[in-house]
Write a structure and sequence with these properties.
Layout (H helix, E strand, L loop, with lengths): L1 E14 L3 E8 L3 E7 L21 E7 L6 E11 L8 H17 L7 H16 L2 H15 L17 E3 L4 E3 L8 E2 L2 H11 L13 H18 L8 H9 L1
Helix pairs in contact: 1-3, 1-6, 2-3, 3-5
GO cellular component, one term: bacterial nucleoid
Keywords: DNA damage, DNA recombination, DNA repair
Function: Involved in DNA repair and RecF pathway recombination.
Length: about 240
């Protein structure tokens, strides 16, 4: 059957001479793989339309969908949102690629989740529009708040009596954990502050330096690895940390 849906591009692989296979997180069907023919064809008028399938691109799609097939087809596609900065600004693009890889590793099932889709779509649009301070903290915000859709979000009960953030249990605790997966002191407090952020512009109020972001991003990667099977390490993380400077 033919359906209209919005989609966010996660991964593109060349296929044959002119085609691609693209993984898209769709509003209607969750993560799906599509064969798109002819988009890498060049002409005198310019390159093909493969540039529309860059990671993080938001598209309006008309698709053929069959639940029995692993590879679907796209009938029509156009921009669903045109970014002003995200594809061209080195820092914003590095944050976006980190977000995309995080989604690649966690969106395991082809199931619709409109609330999650709208959170992701809204996050990329806010990143595109963000100032430098918000952009610098955006990866932390996204990594923390994405977990609430997967059911293992940190419980935000930080206090002087519960100063340790147990990454294995996902909660602030009173005593030093017996395992090595935890944050303490200022890093626990900052995580609590980030959990309270409801809108990205509020990230401007959280002052962090390069070392703080490095420690927190490494810790949040560990948190995901402890709760998502076969998560591994994020290839985009070292690049992001270098770019954030």
């Amino acid at each position: 059957m033919i359906h209209s849906t919005k989609g966010i591009v996660l991964r593109t692989v060349k296929y044959g001479e002119t085609s691609i296979i693209v993984t898209i997180y769709t509003e209607l069907f969750g993560a799906q793989s599509y064969l798109v023919n002819g988009v890498r064809t060049s002409s005198k008028k310019g390159p093909g339309k493969a540039n529309m399938f860059q990671p993080a691109a938001i598209l309006d799609l008309v698709v053929y969908h069959n639940d029995l097939k692993n590879l679907q087809r796209i009938k029509e596609f156009k921009w669903g949102h045109i970014y002003q900065h995200l594809f061209f600004n080195v820092v914003k693009n590095s944050v976006a690629l980190f977000m995309v890889e995080l989604l690649q590793k966690t969106l395991k099932q082809p199931e619709a989740n409109p609330d999650l889709f709208h959170f992701i779509e809204d996050a990329f649009i806010h990143l595109d529009e963000a100032d430098d301070q918000v952009t610098a903290n955006f990866s932390l915000f996204f990594a923390l708040h994405l977990t609430s859709f997967y059911g293992f979000r940190f419980s935000d009960d930080y206090s002087e009596e519960h100063p340790y953030l147990d990454l294995q249990e996902g909660e602030f605790v009173h005593e030093h954990p017996i395992h090595p997966y935890f944050l303490q002191g200022h890093y626990s407090f900052i995580t609590s502050q980030l959990l309270k952020v409801m809108q990205p512009h509020e990230l401007k109020e959280i002052q962090l330096n390069k070392e703080m972001r490095r420690v927190l991003l490494q810790a949040y990667q560990t948190f995901y690895a402890l709760h998502v099977p076969d998560f591994g390490a994020l290839k985009t993380l070292p690049v992001l940390q270098e770019v954030l400077g």
